[in-house]
UniProtKB/TrEMBL annotation:
Protein's UniProt keywords contain Lipid biosynthesis: no
Native organism: Dehalobacter restrictus (strain DSM 9455 / PER-K23)
Residue ranges occupied by any HTH cro/C1-type domain in the UniProt entry: 12-66
Residues of the signal peptide: none
SMART domains referenced in this protein's UniProt entry, alphabetically: HTH_XRE
InterPro entries xrefs: Cro/C1-type_HTH, Lambda_DNA-bd_dom_sf, TransReg_Diox_bact_type
Protein name (database record): XRE family transcriptional regulator
Source species, domain of life: Bacteria
Keywords: DNA-binding, Transcription, Transcription regulation
Length: 103
């Protein structure tokens, strides 16, 4: 899936957890299967605007609020860093560790 699907999925996961809901509870509230919620959160499925609206309504979040999240949001920054690190070679990772002072 695309980086956008993964980013939206991660944002959904963060929003769900902030509300203290399990995937099963969110699925029940939004009339969606919990497995589908998990697939969306992992970025395995593309989400339609209608489905996103349904989920966000269940979370009590406005569509514009959801998309106004800052890329400086700590969880999203960590997510982006980890995804980029996963794509690097072992040599590149060693170089980064060296630059960070962790020989």
């Amino acid at each position: 899936m695309s980086d956008l699907s993964k980013l939206i999925g991660e944002r959904l996961r963060i929003a769900r957890k902030e509300k203290g809901l399990s995937q099963e509870e969110l699925g029940s509230y939004s009339d969606l299967h919990p497995t589908y919620i998990g697939q969306l959160e992992r970025g395995e499925k593309n989400i339609t605007l209608e489905t996103l609206d349904k989920i966000l309504s269940s979370l009590g979040i406005e569509l514009n609020e959801f998309f106004s999240f800052s890329f400086l949001d700590e969880d999203l920054v960590i997510y982006q860093i980890v995804n980029r690190l996963k794509k690097l070679s072992n040599n590149d990772l060693q170089l980064i560790l060296k630059m960070l002072g962790n020989h």
